[in-house]
Structures are given as structure tokens and as C-alpha cells.
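FAQ

Q: What does a record look like?
A: Structure on top, sequence underneath. For example:
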């Protein structure tokens, strides 16, 4: 796999058109006290946020986890991450599935302080002065590669005064243009007592809902300059790029059922906006190449690559 076309590019910008797998309507993300995030462009075009950057980050992480096997999907096995188990050894969570990655309370706030103390020792040199982001990146690469891709904020005063943070390398969002509302509704029927107390869950309850139609597009931004700025070396840089592209392709090939009423699929090929001379490898190519890229970085990971933490409340 050749990434030479990316050598001097600060960003890799990708977008792809999407459509509902059935019908024309879709349900966007909603926010408390706001609902759907509708807005207008300067020319009056009606726009809609279908999926936010933070939600897309969660989806790009989750696509890497094999729930049935309780392990990374096959092409990514061997990457570093932190696995959390209960006191009786049952799987609880891990740094890929936690919204704040290594900053998860299940990793840092339990009674088992083994990993917390290890991490504190690793970042001890960053306690004073400007944070050396290269040293911090080396530590994250060692214990949780995913944190380098999706960003992290170790908001703990015992860890370099709570100053350790990195922005996302891979960011994404989905939006729609020229949208119109498809208003509908329904009734929750109570066949026993239609006039029952609805506050207690009885009775017939009518409701309304707004879905939308429009032109949907997903956007992906891979910050190549930030990856190079980690100073991890070419093997690690290629691995971070390949894992990021794998996440994108895997999501587009089966991870776009965002909600019950929002099941999407790509329309046509990925559009590479910058650099224009790069072609994203297929999911098959990435799956075949990743094991060798992971093997080339094995000595930079913790040994073993999966760090075990027992969560004790």
C-alpha cells in the first residue's frame, strides 16, 4: 500500500453521497431543547445536520469492535487498547467503546489503580513546563492507538495537572441540503383502556414526528499534518492512516444504520477533494495490509498490547 501521494498533504478530505436504503425519508440526530439541527446557507438553502462529529467518532470506533468475539475485528487485532473486566473476569468495557477513551472512569476511577499508576509514571516528565506532545503521543500509541485517532483529554489533576489533550485526527459528519420536512405521526394504542391515565403509561397517546427528505452527504477529514507531528516514525504514521481509512470504509460498507428510521448507504464512489491524486484503498486491500502494518509497530505497543484493568467500584 503506497501513501506517497499523501506525503506533503496537510489533510485528506473525502466526501460521499448517501441515500436511504429504502424510500426517501430519513431521521436526523436530535438534541435536547433543540430537536433537529436545521439551518440555512447565505443563499437560503435549507440544511440539516444528520449526524454530528461526536456521534460519528463513536461510530467509527465501534465499527472496529467484534461484539460476538469480544475483540477487535480481525484486521485490527494486535493494536494496543485497554480492556476492562469485572471482578469476576467478565468483560465490562474497553477504551475503544468508551466515549472518552482512556479517560473513562471505568479505566481511571476504579479501585484497581494499576494502570492509572502506570500511566502517571509514563507522563511524569510532562508535569512541568509545556507539554511535549511527541512524548504524550508515544504513550498513547503504546496503550491505546485509537486515542491518537479520535482525540483525548486526560482531565485528571494527577496526570500532568489535567493538561494532556489531543484533538481528533479523524473527524467526520453527515449533513443534508435542500431538505424538506416529511411530517407524520401515530398513536400508541391501549386496547384495554383507551382513556386510561397516560401519565402512568395507560390510554391512547397520539404523537407527531418529523422526518426529512434531501440530498445527504458524509464528510471525512484526516489530519495528516497532526499525524506527522506526533513524530512516531513512518511505520506508525502509515498504520494510523491505514486504520483511519479502514474505519471510513468499514463504516460506509455496513455501519450506516444510524437509527431505526435512518438507514443509509453510499451512492457512487468516494470523492477525494485533497489531495486529488490519491485513491482510497478498498476495504479488502486495507484488511489484507493492516496485519503487516500492525506487526511492524509491535515493539512500540505495550506487551501484551491489550492492557487489562479490573473495575472495582
Amino acid at each position: 500500500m503506497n501513501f506517497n501521494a499523501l506525503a506533503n498533504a496537510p489533510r485528506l478530505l473525502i466526501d460521499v453521497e448517501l441515500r436511504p436504503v429504502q424510500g426517501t425519508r430519513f431521521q436526523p440526530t436530535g438534541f435536547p431543547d433543540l430537536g433537529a439541527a436545521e439551518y440555512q446557507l447565505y443563499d437560503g438553502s435549507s440544511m440539516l445536520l444528520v449526524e454530528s462529529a461526536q456521534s460519528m467518532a463513536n461510530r467509527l470506533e465501534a465499527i472496529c469492535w467484534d461484539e460476538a468475539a469480544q475483540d477487535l475485528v480481525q484486521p485490527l487485532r494486535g493494536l494496543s487498547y485497554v480492556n476492562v473486566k469485572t471482578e469476576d473476569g467478565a468483560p465490562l468495557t474497553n477504551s475503544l467503546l468508551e466515549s472518552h477513551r482512556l479517560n473513562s472512569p471505568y479505566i481511571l476511577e476504579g479501585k484497581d489503580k494499576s494502570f492509572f499508576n502506570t500511566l502517571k509514571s509514563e507522563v511524569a516528565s510532562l508535569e512541568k513546563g509545556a507539554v511535549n506532545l511527541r512524548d504524550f503521543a508515544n504513550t498513547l500509541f503504546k496503550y491505546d492507538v485509537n486515542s491518537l485517532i479520535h482525540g483525548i483529554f486526560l482531565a485528571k489533576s494527577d496526570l500532568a495537572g489535567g493538561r494532556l489533550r489531543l484533538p481528533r485526527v479523524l473527524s467526520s459528519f453527515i449533513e443534508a441540503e435542500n431538505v424538506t420536512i416529511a411530517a407524520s405521526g401515530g398513536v400508541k394504542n391501549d386496547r384495554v383502556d383507551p382513556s386510561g391515565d397516560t401519565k402512568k403509561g395507560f390510554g391512547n397517546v397520539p404523537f407527531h414526528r418529523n422526518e426529512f427528505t434531501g440530498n445527504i452527504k458524509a464528510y471525512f477529514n484526516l489530519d495528516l499534518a497532526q499525524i506527522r507531528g506526533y513524530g512516531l516514525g513512518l511505520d506508525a504514521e502509515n498504520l494510523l492512516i491505514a486504520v483511519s481509512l479502514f474505519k471510513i470504509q468499514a463504516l460506509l460498507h455496513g455501519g450506516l444504520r444510524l437509527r431505526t428510521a435512518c438507514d443509509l448507504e453510499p451512492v457512487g464512489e468516494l470523492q477525494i477533494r485533497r489531495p486529488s491524486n490519491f485513491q482510497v484503498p478498498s476495504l479488502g486491500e486495507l484488511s489484507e495490509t493492516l496485519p503487516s502494518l500492525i506487526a511492524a509497530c509491535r515493539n512500540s505497543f505495550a506487551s501484551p498490547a491489550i492492557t487489562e484493568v479490573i473495575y472495582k467500584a
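Q: Is there anything notable about this one?
A: The chain has eight helices and 15 strands.
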